[in-house]
Write the structure tokens for this entry.
Amino acid sequence: MKGFAMKKLIFTILVISLFPLFNVFSQPAFYSESFETSDSIHLPSDWFVFNNANFPIDPLSNWTVRDSGVAIPGIEFSPGRGAKSYDGTKSIMVSWNTSIDTNGTTPTISDAYLVTKLFTNLPPDAKLSFYASGGSTSYADSMQIWISNSDSLPSSFVFRLGSISWPEGSVYGNFTHYQYDLAYFAGMDIRIAFRYNMDCAHDGFVVFVDKVQMLGTVGINQIGTNLPKSFALHQNYPNPFNPTTTIKFDIPRSTQAKIEVYNNLGQLVKVLHDGYTSAGYFETQFDAGTLSSGVYFYRLTTPNYVETKKMILVK
């Protein structure tokens, strides 16, 4: 018994000791949208909705942000049949009602697009991550994911990234995590489109999307191969600057690290880096092209170290 107990203890210690290794392969999210600050009229900044069918539809049937539990156009409301969310209290959704011409009542083929913001200079390890739910006990559903490297119009989405199908009998509001590798688009400026293209004469019910994230390592460059002895946040240069400046920082051991910029009111302006960071010397660029002149503060935050420095933007 003692020998068995000792082997079990050694195995447990080995398993626990391996946990930090998993973090090395995890990717930080350089963009995350859970729709909590949006509503049925206002989309997230730089997001768009299009009806690509050749007939007018009820705009509230198209991709719309709703609070959990509220009614959905075209779906008879009952307890448990309202809007659903995965992260927080809101999600964005589209219903089969997008297949109905507002001048008629017969469902046909829907073609509704939800287009994300522009993601510039995509990193080589970029991945698209989101949670989605579709279909019901009586109806099948589907959604396509497309890429555009030109503009936000539906005709520009020529790269089909994938499709998701929910068969008849799916659990209503049951979210699943989906992830797509974007390595092919490294270095490009792209937008993502979630396309609801259903023949709703026979199927189609409602699709929910929530917690849309872009994963990957962005915003920092490692300098050399030597390892620093201590944490440090260096003074930006040039300073004053217009409109770009360089920020250097040192990480002596692998850890979670975040570089943020604040204005003189203490409001967050931009996150330059947020994620697991290996040990080394790093630098990042801050572009203040859209900001007004003034004093700004940048901060390095890790579990064991926090430092803030001041910089001045002069235009």
User: Anything to note?
Assistant: The chain has a mean pLDDT of 88.
